[in-house]
Amino acid sequence: MLLSDQTLNITPPPHLIFGVNAIRHLPEQIKLLGRTRALIVTDAGLVRAGLAQKVQAVLSEAKIESLNFEGVQPNPTIDNITAGSACLSGLDLDQIVVVALGGGSSMDTAKGIALHATNGGEVVNLDYRVSLPFPALPIIAIPTTAGTGSEQNSYGVITNPHTQRRFYVGNDSAQPKVAILDPELTIKLPPAATAATGMDVLSHALESLASRNANPYADAINLEVIHKVTHWLPLAYADGTQLEARAQMLLASSMVALAYRSGTGMGLAHAIGHALGGRLNVAHGMALSIVLGDVIRFNLAANALPYARAAWAMGVADPARSAIENAEAAAATVDGLAQVVGMKRPLASLGVTSDVIDLLVTDALEDVVLYNNPIQPTAEQVRAIIVKNC
Ligand SMILES: [Zn+2]
User: Fold this and answer.
1) What span, in angstroms and rounded, lies between the C-alpha atoms of 350 and 287?
2) Ion ligand 1: residues, CB < 5 A
């Protein structure tokens, strides 16, 4: 699309503080928000890893009182939100800041708690489409994975255990006010989680780059992120203690969220990935890794140029080759990277059987992210991508 035909609506991101030991800035940021007490929202794994204690130590040194809610589960539920919100009952909410410490699940839960604490009622009524009377408590996000970019948005994915459906809690006020990106906090992330979250970052950049709503602001970010991930993810995967690799991946994960929040959004790989996650609980990053190469091969028939540019960013392009050939090289590089970091598995080994494929195809076609894809696939085309990877 021509830039002169586009309208960009780029809202201000949170205040980002990036750097090794950036966590030391937490107390001053809490004070700037006019708060005196923190509710740390995290999971038991991060408590075992000592990260929650590290944050508590920084706060107690600055004489800021903190409470811990360590009940975040993967795919957080309504009950996680009410349990976290209950920790605040009887306290003066005007003094509280919510500190979200962890991966996407901690961020999602923290947004729900911050909204529920002020609004109360049923958690399903915190759905992003409902207008809420009260703003969320302020949130400071401290990601410990380099993947979701959730610190950059105001939504959280929550599961309703009664219906087994997922929904989005959200409100503009639930966007974190500050995100503290400290690469040292990602050092303990195990290789499989490093790989899955890293491939998610790459998928965000490639889908945003090829989106029918692509724009130059996002392109510049996406190309740098593609360059970073293809170079640094194998190193972070092979040796998680490499601080430079961790730093590059953490910044990439947050940068790419700046790109897609400009309106580019995700595409077909995420539509299939969401279907695989919803029906079979396949980890998001792994689901994307399996299909992304073939999604590129499918999309490049409509527009090879974004993928050819990605090939340049990956360092695998050749000026003597056509855009389509370079785009194919980008697809091969994605598959190769997924293989190197252990994320390329047959879908059959993850529970995809012939009777599930119809449901996956239907779910993928109904996913709103498909609107951003450069071409609208037919059911047969989606099926072909799934079957090829079984
Ligand atoms: Zn994703």
Assistant:
1) 9
2) 200
